[in-house]
Design brief:
371 residues, alpha/beta, 7-stranded parallel beta sheet, 11 strands
């Protein structure tokens, strides 16, 4: 018997990591709960495959911070170290309590001893075994498990991916640990008959998509791109976590390949730099991106472009996650298994198959219509 009685037109979602991105997603579901199609500002799809925002329910959640464990999800999303914008005045209680998660490599060493409130205060509670997580996923009738762990959480991400496989739950990987784009993991989800979408969420209107669009514009307008950089600063826990550069290998590959894949010619490594730059505490969840692109116009005449983009980082992510979740459920309804390539190509930085944004958009809309 399920712990959460529900209409099966609902999408039952489990979350790993109740951080800023989860906060924005949960707030967003409450924000759009009672609206109609005329209130869809900020959404790419009001109705996606027959599912609307109000159909998403949060039935399970795991975190490791003692300020969140044991609290209702609706309360935990506002607990420190979260610092994203509060844009929904009332988030109703979910009836879902945040459980203690498995730490593994989910907490960088330097974040245990950080001096400000952004540090993780790891709860002194027993950590779950795989069978514990699987049992919760089954008891709650979870449809989709969303991975919001910190960048660099390779072991922890694989732990929860294994749980999803065993429990028969679709997996949406929002971080730059390669699961959907790894042939072995893709094959395992396909053999299990489960949808898999990832890797590394591409924000609604963030640094990566803007950089890609401009790179594609250079190609289409016959401008030779000689060199480019993308520098990002922010003050949320994600940027603090990424001060440990050893956790960034997959992140840099993911972000760099997202840009390289749409360039007319791949740039030599010394001519492209894409990645996080630094942690600025007072920025909180605001992310500032600095882009520079240098190229050659008609006749080889040089030109350069500089752009500054400022966004609230986590709502920017949630604007995509809300569609990823619905795509995963649609794929599950249709009996699709393995990577859901149209959704991954449009919504993720490091999908199993890189496509131009125009082609990815067309394939995604075809997938939605065919559902």
């Amino acid at each position: 018997m399920s712990l959460h009685a529900s209409n099966r037109s609902d999408i039952n979602v489990a979350i790993v990591g109740v951080g800023n991105c989860a906060s924005s997603l949960v707030q967003g579901i409450a924000h759009y709960q009672n609206g109609g199609a005329n209130d869809q500002i900020g959404l790419m799809h009001w109705d996606l495959g027959g599912y609307r925002p109000k159909d998403i329910r949060f039935v399970a959640a795991w975190d490791v911070d003692r300020r969140k464990v044991g609290r209702d999800v609706a309360d935990a999303i506002f607990a420190k170290p979260n610092c994203t914008a509060t844009f929904c005045d009332h988030v109703p209680a979910s009836g879902t309590t945040v459980r203690m998660g498995r730490v593994l490599d989910g907490v960088a060493d330097h974040m245990r001893d950080w001096t400000d409130e952004r540090t993780f205060l790891v709860a002194d509670e027993p950590q779950p075994e795989r069978e514990d997580v699987v049992q919760v996923l089954r008891e709650t009738d979870a449809d989709v498990l969303v991975n919001y762990l910190p960048v660099g959480s390779q072991q922890a991400t694989e732990f929860y991916a294994e749980c999803a496989l065993e429990a028969g739950v679709a997996f949406v990987n929002c971080i730059p640990v390669f699961i959907a784009s790894c042939p072995d993991w893709a094959r395992r989800f396909e053999q299990a008959g489960l949808p898999l979408i990832g890797d590394d969420i591409k924000a609604q209107l963030g640094a990566t998509i803007v950089h890609r669009v401009l790179t594609d514009l250079f190609r289409k307008r016959g401008v030779k791109l000689d060199r480019t950089y993308q520098l990002n600063t922010g003050g949320n826990t994600d940027f603090l976590n990424m001060l440990e550069r050893s956790r960034l290998a997959s992140k840099k590959i993911s972000k760099t390949e997202a840009v390289q894949s749409v360039a007319e010619h791949r740039l030599d490594p010394e001519n492209i730099h894409v990645g996080p730059s630094d942690y600025v505490a007072w920025q909180n969840d605001n992310k500032v991106c600095f882009l520079r692109m240098e190229g050659q116009l008609f006749g080889g005449v040089p030109m350069n472009l500089e752009l500054r983009l400022s966004v609230e980082d986590s709502p920017n992510s949630a604007g995509v996650a809300i569609d990823l979740i619905r795509c995963a459920r649609v794929a599950k309804d249709r009996g699709l298994a393995g990577p859901v390539k149209p959704a991954a190509a449009f919504f993720c930085k490091h999908p199993p198959e890189q496509l131009s944004d125009d082609e990815a958009f067309e394939q995604l809309e075809r997938f939605v219509r065919d559902s």
